[in-house]
Amino acid sequence: MNHSILLIEDDSGLVFMLSDRLLAEGYVLEIANDGRSGLALAQKKRFDLILLDVMLPEKTGFEVCRELRKSGITTPILMLTARGQLDDKITGLKLGADDYMTKPFEALELVARIEAHIRRNQYPSSQETLPAKHYERYAFGDIVVDIRGMEAHKAGQALDLSLKEFQLLVYLIENQGTMLSRDDILNNVWGYDAMPTTRTVDTHVAWLRQKIEPNPKQPQFILTAHGFGYKFVAS
Q1: pLDDT-based confidence at 127, cuts 50/70/90?
Q2: What is the three-class DSSP state of 117?
Q3: DSSP state string for 154-216
Q4: Does the structure show a pLDDT above 60 at 193?
Q5: Pairwise CA distance, residues 93 & 103, whole Å
Q6: pTM higher than 0.85, yes or no?
Q7: 71 in Cβ contact with 46 (< 8 Å)
Q8: Distance between alpha carbon 62 and the CA centroid of its chain, in Å?
Q9: DSSP 8-state assignment for residue 231
Q10: What kind of fold does domain 137-232 have according to CATH?
């Protein structure tokens, strides 16, 4: 079966170029030219990957990404941005995007990233698989993690975790008590082909600590091994 891609992009020239390339690669392609119609299409039909521009009419790419993740849609999202600012990239990742590319980009690299994300989503490793290997629900401190439901609560209040933050938390829980290198975490949460750096791990750990630790500056659950990685302890 050919894999399906939803392209949400309002630049007609880029739509033409990407359509020509992706169809030639054998993908089934659907196109939306604004955020509102793209969101509706993504919620109505199942796609193997979503290419999502940041600057869109009706709804921005950030808004679309946020609403898709809040509705439980876990389809890989690769964001396209004409802006090179780090803040935009971090915002997209924090909202649940899996990757980003800054325009202009090489079509060959885009296709390679698409293939990597679809392959990884189709054949997840045992460490990435949700629900977790050993737990359906897991509690520590005042945190309760519903792994099957992909939700977490702190003192009864829902935590606003991005998809990657949630996957990171589950991976740490599954390997509690084990010192994990940054490369271990990177490969098992993001995947070998995802192309982020170990700095991505540090950034997501910092965000996660802000949400689950009683005192993020003195973490008691996600501990740091300086120069190596992290270890999760329940108490």
Answers
A1: very low
A2: helix
A3: ETTEEP---HHHHHHHHHHHHTTTS-EEHHHHIIIII-TTS---HHHHHHHHHHHHHHH-SST
A4: no
A5: 17
A6: no
A7: no
A8: 13
A9: E
A10: Arc Repressor Mutant, subunit A (1.10.10)
Helices (H), the chain: 12-24, 35-44, 61-70, 86-94, 107-122, 163-174, 182-185, 198-212
Residue 32 has pLDDT above 90, yes or no: yes
Question: Which strands, in side-by-side order, build the sheet including 99-102?
Answer: 28-32, 4-8, 49-53, 77-81, 99-102
Domain boundaries, the chain: 4-122, 137-232
Tokens of 61: 């790419």
Residue-level length of the chain: 235
Q: For residue 13, report the phi and psi dihedrals to the nearest 5 degrees.
A: -65, -45
Query: Is residue 30 within 8 Å of residue 47, measured between CB atoms?
Result: yes
Q: Which residue do the tokens 């005192």 mark? A: 215
**pLDDT tens per residue, range 155-164:** 888 898 888 8
Q: Tell me the C-alpha distance between 216 and 187, whole Å.
A: 25
Angle at 117 between CA 153 and CA 99, to 5 degrees: 65
Tokens linked to 81: 């941005």
Which contacts of 125-134 are long-range, i.e. CB under 8 A and separated by 24 or more positions?
125/188, 125/191, 127/171, 127/174, 127/175, 127/188, 127/189, 128/167, 128/171, 128/188, 128/189, 128/191, 130/167, 130/170, 132/170, 132/173, 132/174, 133/174, 134/174
Q: For domain 4-122, which CATH number applies: 3.40.50.300, 3.40.50.970, 3.40.50.2300, 3.30.420.40?
A: 3.40.50.2300
> What's the confidence (pLDDT) of residue 98?
83
